[in-house]
Amino acid sequence: MTTTTHYGPPCSATTCHRGLRPHELTNHQTICTPCTHAIGVWLRTELPLQITVLEGSRQRETTGASTGGRTAHGTAPLPGRDDVLNLLGPAAWSDGIRDPYDQAHTDQHGTTPIAGVLIPWVRLIADERRWNPPATLAPQALAAWLAHPPVLAYASRRPWAGPLRDELDELMRTVRRVTFLRPRSRPVPQPCPRCESLDLVETDHQLYVDCRACEAMFTREELALAARITAATLAAGTT
Prior knowledge:
Blueprint: H1 22-26, H2 33-55, E1 65-67, E2 70-72, H3 82-88, H4 114-129, H5 139-147, H6 149-156, H7 161-179, E3 185-187, E4 200-203, E5 208-211, E6 217-219, H8 220-237
Antiparallel strand pairs: 1-2, 3-4, 4-5, 5-6
């Protein structure tokens, strides 16, 4: 069970309120395991789906009436959506190079491209570990490289892991505002093993089920074990 109890120093991500558990401290992590898992879910699962939606939203709707199978436009077709084009825009390997603790970005006007957010982190890790970067700078390739388990495990132990998590969290929020596509949350019909409230919620792709009452977190295996214990206790009480 993962709770908000501070076993040690807090997770270094400003978007997280959890404390690091003993096994995370032993592993020299600077961000908690749920945050590490969230990064992997964003990069490995959600971001590729979001990019597919963005690719299909490049063009604005056009005005005009259809005549004989052809569309007669009253005005010229509108240019591509600026918000989508900005997110899908290219970024050079040398753009946006910065220390993870400062906020220097590229000269891009408007939203920084997805690739522009990911490239500095890929380059930082590749330089520190002398690992080969991905073969292309496509955002899908950059995201897959960062989500590779050895890369993600290394990142979770670095002093800049918190800023990485925070920046990717903001990137995903920006993308979702454009696509209107957000992970779905559903109630779990089981009492919370910690506070016994009926406020457990599971979210698409997430490893942990959250309790919105006490803010504890559980894996599905932990919830299944708690359900078996409860059932056994009730059965023992009726015999």
